[in-house]
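Check this.
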Amino acid sequence: MQKPMADSDLLEKIAAVVKTEGGSIARQGPHGLTGTLTAIKSKWFLGGRKVTDTVTCRLLPEAHEVHLREIAVEASWGLPPPTLTMEKTVQSGSRVTSTRVDQAVGGSGRMEFGRFRDAVAQATRDAGWAFVYDVP
């Protein structure tokens, strides 16, 4: 059986995974991380829209578990530009994976919900820790 990686090393590995996926990272105490990726951004003179994917990781060193929670938030202000949205959602048990593509007058983007989850789960298992997906 593989010896579990040290918690500080695992936090660094998870941070590297989130950065590789294009997100920004912030430490939340000694055993936590928050990663953010603004996936869709559109703006014009009357308003705008932004879709952000946020992932929160919390390590439980005594149990060698990594708890992950992921959330997508859409914020708009004023009168957002006209937008064509295409979305594909797949659910397996409590796990939801979604791909959303927006095409708008003032910008476009693509968000893959579940992208962080899969990458962090693999890094966690490679480090000899258990991965727990917390459903909000």
Q: What stands out?
A: The two ends are 32 Å apart (CA to CA). Helices lie at 7-20, 115-126.
